[in-house]
Amino acid sequence: GPDYVRAIAPYQGGRPIAEVAREFGLDEAKIVKLASNENPLGMPESAKQAMAAAIADAGRYPDGNGFELKAALTAKYGVPAEWITLGNGSNDILELSAHAFVQPGQSVIYAQYSFAVYPLAAQAVGARSLVIAAKDFGHDLDAMADAIEADTRLIFVANPNNPTGTFIPGDQIESFLKRVPPEVVVVLDEAYTEFLAPEQQYDSIAWVAKYPNLLVSRSMSKVYGLAGLRIGYGIAQAGITDLLNRIRQPFNVNSLAQAAAIAALNDHAFVQKSAQLNAAGYRQLTQAFDALKLRYLPSSGNFVMVKVGDDDGAGARVNLALLKQGVIVRPVGNYGLPQWLRISIGLEEENTIFIAALKKALA
Ligand code: PMP
Asked: Which positions bear N6-(pyridoxal phosphate)lysine (predicted)?
């Protein structure tokens, strides 16, 4: 295979519950997993019912063009179906955009401490990555715009960012879009956008009509609680969308996921409840960090980064001490943050168990 494929370091996800239970001799049912930014409420009931009803037809291929799901998205956002790409998770959208727009040797721009899939997507197509130094753990959009080269084809911007939870106000993003030349596609990755506080919200979908090079990516794995079903979507003008749809797998989103997604998109009560639970959990965790005099990064997502020591072994050490107590969180040494851990916000009782385990781990 190509050297650039051999050079890829595999994605490191949250450790599976069954594997941790086996390794540490623990009861699976007692393990608390706060490692993958999932919705601690799980799937909405409405989506479970829709999925159960869809099983009857699962012997057939899914609708490869997602007619009904796109109709639901069209109704929600007021964009034509020709602007929507469905993905097997929003990960799929990110990877498709690298395949559709970047040739080997051309450059892709993203920020230091930004989502781990951006380097993977870039490397998989043999692109050169221009990694722009973070500012206060978040994106330095001015530096990212300054870094654009003649052969830059793609820029990834995560808002909020994972793993750091940083947020860029909408007006700053639009100023950035104005600086990006039309031949460079901007993927605005909004996997966590539904967790934004009311005063943070901005209308990126309205920008799609103004910027033919903008692709807004959204996930149904987070607030909508469908992580295991793998579904996300991209919204961009037809020029971008047409290319993404040419190269995606014909049946990239399965029928059960499509059915569940339609129900979840319309389940406003569930989304609201999830966002409220997240806000309360954020207060619970950050108050505990304050009491323990631990530094954390203010987060706009459903997770928080906390600094667990001053030496580069701290993250791995505290992570291991947590695993032994049956608590799975996410070490971020692979992001270049070995003194930190990323904690997904869980149910109140899960957060409580984590806090107690953290106190022991630090003692
Ligand atoms: N973007 C960001 C910033 C993420 O954190 C994640 C999930 N870790 C994704 C995209 C991909 O999520 P999914 O494929 O489940 O939609």
From this structure: 222
pLDDT in tens, the chain (363 residues): 899 999 998 888 899 999 999 999 999 999 999 999 999 999 999 999 999 999 999 999 999 999 999 999 999 999 999 999 999 999 999 999 999 999 999 999 999 999 999 999 999 999 999 999 999 999 999 999 999 999 999 999 999 999 999 999 999 999 999 999 999 999 999 999 999 999 999 999 999 999 999 999 999 999 999 999 999 999 999 999 999 999 999 999 999 999 999 999 999 999 999 999 999 999 999 999 999 999 999 999 999 999 999 999 999 999 999 999 999 999 999 999 999 999 999 999 999 999 999 999 999
- How many angstroms does the Cα of residue 126 sit away from the middle of ligand 1? 22
Is the C-beta atom of 213 inside 6 A of ligand 1? no
DSSP 3-state of 323: helix
Q: Which of 246, 265, 284 is the last residue of a domain?
A: 265
- Residue 117 alpha carbon to ligand 1 centre in Å: 8
Closest-CA residue to 121 (of 5, 200, 292): 5
Question: Which ipTM was obtained for this model?
Answer: 0.99
Cβ atoms 98, 91 nearer than 8 A: no
Final residue belonging to a domain, choices 201, 234, 265: 265
Q: Are residue 29 and residue 53 in the same domain, yes or no?
A: no
- Number of domains into which the chain is organized: 2
